[in-house]
Design goal:
The chain is elongated. The chain has a domain of 179 residues: Penicillin binding protein transpeptidase fold, CATH 1.10.3810.10. The chain has 22 helices and 14 strands. By secondary structure, the protein is an alpha+beta fold. The relative contact order is 0.09. The strands form 4 sheets. The protein has a 5-stranded mixed sheet with strand order 2-1-5-10-11, covered by helices on one side. A 5-stranded antiparallel sheet has the order 7-6-14-13-12, with helices on both faces. Strands 3-4 form a two-stranded parallel sheet.
Length: 623
């Protein structure tokens, strides 16, 4: 029996890989994944070798009637400062509050990130950031402000590139010359010139601390918005400099004692509500959106100062006691040229324009439209009406006094602002006719023919209401408020020039004379006696329900003005009527506005003859 040789099998022992091997494999794959991730992050980055220029918004320079600059819109950029030109106090102030380890980290500060993480964890919210100055530069110059993980990762990538491409002084110079400091100022030099009126090369320690403090929240801490908040933030910066060893106790004490003050040019100037309104007009009148523009307007700077003073002084003297927190004023030429505009108590605190944007119930100031409709319907100023209780469609109006005076003429009822007679006039003329009169005089908004229409319950803007009175003041021609005379590019090319429209009569001369006499009586012996001037004047008081709004609107032969007082939330004032606070403020403004002007009778231009009036308008149109 033969035996077969037995096949031998080779057994290869299985190799066991230790932890070093697997760490190596993980490192390789992590490197590959990292490369792919870096490529993903980098594929839509801008050209890192060419710093993108700062984006500049269109500049619009608003000038007054005298050619002086009222305000300039658009981003502000100053001179580029080399690192050696930037005061050391500014550098140290920024490092103290933004990045104390700037000169020792490589663009990303792990210690700062960990510190911020723990602080935010304890606070339960994002209370502290860990971004370095290099990261902030990366975000501000190269990246969009998106708050995404991708953008944050790209920020780290660009920060590392910046650290390789530039040295530390260059990075800091790039940052300070491009970062936003509020009030449309980009870069340290623009901010210094905007707030302090001089170059950043001359910054004091207190000024440097104020600018460094703005970096945390430029719009919130901008000294043009609140100097007190900006100075308080500057003191925090000084304390941080002391804690970091960047300043001595004596230096900090002196800087706090001599806190930074704004230059006169940095303070919110006169006419900013008007300037905002004028820019809206510019956008409507021209399609130019790129070239710098110079806009010449109708605003009279002298009258503007007087207008702002009249509202400010009235609120300062009586606002708190009377629970009136806001006021507004519009002053027009009889043809509609805007001479002064006050849109609120303080522009720096609120840019909401109560002269043009707010719609309020004008109360009895709307009776101008009611009585004009009545006069056109055949009623006469000496016609007698009964001040007795009346009811219209189940509604019974009440007089302010709560009393009824019996028979009285139409003129007397108008002067005394008798509500029952106004409703009778509205019903006699027809409410649709009253609405049509309001439209004819330029009043916008919802004006419904309800029985209460006669008492001014429709909401109107002050600018429209004042324009309606201007129509009477100029003799009965349509008056639309305007403020822009010319728009030119910075190199002088004319884009727009205001041309007076062909005169359009909307009230006949006899109706104008009649209503003007009635309006004058309001001031001489009616509800508007507090508005009396040293010359012939006409006007009407207005008070809405529960004293929420108080108006006075009126005119001389030279100027038309409307005044409003009230509260933004619509809360009631303490018994303020149109014949009180508004009439007094109107009277003070108009007296100041007419200083050194010769007194003229009402409708002086109308009395020269209607044909001459129309001729002058046509001559201006042709000129």
């Amino acid at each position: 029996m033969s035996t077969q040789p037995t096949e031998r099998r080779l057994t290869i022992p299985r190799r066991r890989h230790g932890p070093v091997y697997w760490i190596g494999v993980a490192f390789v794959w992590a490197s590959i994944a990292g490369l792919f991730f870096a490529g993903y992050l980098a594929h839509d980055l801008p050209d890192l070798d060419n710093l993108p220029p700062p984006g500049r918004a269109q500049t619009i320079e608003i000038r007054g009637e005298d050619g002086g600059v009222i305000h300039k819109y658009g981003d502000l950029y100053g001179r580029w400062l080399a690192f050696e030109e930037i005061p050391q106090s500014m550098v140290l102030a920024v490092l103290a509050v933004e990045d104390r380890r700037f000169f020792s980290h490589a663009g990303v500060d792990a210690r700062a990130i960990a510190r911020a993480f723990l602080a935010n964890l304890r606070a339960g919210r994002v209370a502290q950031g860990g971004s370095t100055i290099t990261q902030q530069l990366a975000k501000n110059v190269f990246l969009k402000p998106d708050r995404t993980l991708k953008r944050k990762a790209q920020e780290l990538l660009v920060a590392l590139w910046l650290e390789q491409r530039f040295d530390k002084p260059e990075i800091l110079s790039l940052y300070l010359n491009r970062v936003y400091f509020g009030a449309a100022a980009y870069g340290i030099d623009a901010a210094a010139r905007k707030y302090f009126g001089h170059s950043a090369a001359r910054l004091s320690l207190s000024e440097a601390a104020l600018l460094a403090g703005l970096l945390k929240a430029p719009s919130r801490y901008a000294p043009t918005r609140s100097l007190d908040d900006a100075q308080a933030r500057a003191e925090d910066v000084l304390d941080a400099m002391l804690a970091a060893g960047f300043a001595t106790e004596d230096m900090v004490a002196k800087a706090k004692a001599a806190s930074a003050q704004l230059s006169a040019d940095a303070l919110p100037g006169d006419g900013l509500y008007f300037a905002d309104w004028a820019v809206e007009e510019v956008r409507r009148l021209t399609e130019e959106r790129a070239k710098p523009l110079v806009v010449y307007t109708t605003l009279n700077p002298t009258l503007q100062v007087k207008a702002e003073r009249s509202i400010r002084d009235a609120l300062r003297a009586s606002g708190d006691a009377l629970k009136a927190q806001q006021g507004a004023l519009v002053a027009l030429s009889p043809e509609g040229a805007m001479r002064a505009m006050v849109g609120g108590r303080r522009y720096a605190a609120s840019q909401y324009n109560r002269a043009t944007q707010a719609r309020r119930q004008p109360g009895s100031a709307f009776k101008l439209m009611v009585y004009l409709a009545g006069l056109e319907a055949g009623l006469a100023p000496d016609q007698v009406f009964d001040d007795v209780p009346v009811t219209v469609e189940g509604w019974t109006p009440k007089n302010y006094s709560g009393k009824h005076l019996g028979p009285m003429t139409l003129a007397a009822a108008f002067a005394g602002s008798i509500n029952t007679v106004a409703v009778q006039v509205s019903e006699a003329a027809g409410r649709d006719r009253v609405v049509a009169m309001a439209r004819r005089l330029g009043l916008q908004g919802s004006i419904q023919p309800h029985p209460s229409l006669a008492l001014g319950t429709s909401e109107l803007s002050l600018i429209d209401l004042t324009g309606a009175y201007a129509t009477v003041a100029n003799g009965g021609f349509a008056a639309r408020a305007y403020g822009v005379l010319e728009i030119r590019t910075a190199d002088g090319a004319l884009l727009y020039r205001h041309r007076p429209s062909e005169p359009r009569r909307v009230l006949d001369a006899e109706t104008v004379r009649a209503i003007s006499t009635m309006l004058a009586r309001v001031i001489t012996d009616g509800t508007g006696r507090a508005a009396a001037l040293d010359r012939p004047a006409a006007g009407k008081t207005g008070t809405s329900q529960d004293f929420r709004d108080a108006f006075f609107a009126g005119f001389t032969s030279d100027l038309v003005a409307g005044v409003w007082f009230g509260n933004d939330d619509g809360s009631a004032m303490a018994g303020v009527t149109g014949g009180g606070l508004p009439a007094r403020a109107w009277g003070r403004f108009m007296l100041a506005a007419h200083n050194a002007r010769p007194a003229r009778p009402l409708l002086a231009d109308l009395e020269t003859g209607e044909s001459e009036k129309e001729k002058s308008w046509l001559e201006r149109l042709i000129d």
